[in-house]
Amino acid sequence: xxxxxxxxxxxxxxxxxxxxxxxxxxxxxxxxxxxxxxxxxxxxxxxxxxxxxxxxxxxxxxxxxxxxxxxxxxxxxxxxxxxxxxxxxxxxxxxxxxxxxxxxxxxxxxxxxxxxxxxxxxxxxxxxxxxxxxxxxxxxxxxxxxxxxxxxxxxxxxxxxxxxxxxxxxxxxxxxxxxxxxxxxxxxxxxxxxxxxxxxxxxxxxxxxxxxxxxxxxxxxxxxxxxxxxxxxxxxxxxxxxxxxxxxxxxxxxxxxxxxxxxxxxxxxxxxxxxxxxxxxxxxxxxxxxxxxxxxxxxxxxxxxxxxxxxxxxxxxxxxxxxxxxxxxxxxxxxxxxxxxxx
Length: 343
Known about the structure:
The two termini are 44 Å apart. This protein has eleven helices and twelve strands. The strands form two sheets. Strands 3-2-1-4-5-6-7 form a seven-stranded parallel beta sheet, with helices on both faces. It has a five-stranded parallel beta sheet with strand order 10-9-8-11-12, with helices on both faces. It is α/β, with parallel strands linked by helices. The chain has helices at residues 6-18, 23-41, 54-68, 87-97, 134-143, 202-206, 210-214, 242-254, 266-275, 291-300, 317-332; strands at 46-50, 73-77, 102-106, 116-120, 147-151, 173-177, 192-196, 231-235, 259-265, 280-284, 306-309, 339-340. The chain has two domains: 22-199, 3-Layer(aba) Sandwich (Rossmann fold); 231-340, UDP-N-acetylmuramoyl-L-alanine:D-glutamate ligase (3-Layer(aba) Sandwich).
């Protein structure tokens, strides 16, 4: 992969974690790579500005390795490392904070006096406009009479855009992890860009893993209302198989959907209302799917966006024909798929 978006990179990290290659290990490899690339090119005192997220963790690791290589290293943190929400970064901070060979202080907007300044502020998680105190830190980095090195990508750039932003670090060297990021097109003419392989397994790219799912789950808006996160119609269950319908509805809710319609027998609906009171239920009197159930389902197809049909409906030719009518109705309403598991 020559270039990866921030979402694609996150997918690989999560898949790597599932394969046993932890974020802590990837961060160790990333920080070590940064230190090695600096050591190949520059000498002198190093100041590393750290922010939040995984990029700060890369900076802590780079500081330790540079110190081991004989550099005078100072970490200036913009965000309190104890408040970093990235667990692997916090663990690496604990290691670095134990070392007397590395000077550590809070960054308060002073000029940066060093031979090498490392940007470990914001990485692939950054979106939007650069705010304080990051904006001031970026300005001071650019003003520093030093070689500037950005970890993964220059702070201030949108990782997934090739358009420049108003404020961003202008580095001499970028050490990016695993693959280039789209934003590096902004600086590649003035900066040296090195791609560091940090141990992400080939299997994390080739095979489906947790990252393929977790990165596709949309974030809910704080002002969202019921139905904004999905509407599913479930046609399932019979008087004999009430549990199948309830489990299907439960699966819908567990996936993140917040509005589920159930069309089923009276026995199933009564049980479902007790188990899942948030369901919107429509019942029919027969012990299995009848014409009334088909009519109710066809009307609800206009409200729902997805259809789950089949579990617990039992099996005979009449039921099969009624299922076909509902599925045909779904396609007429623009549905792209249906879930079918007939018993």
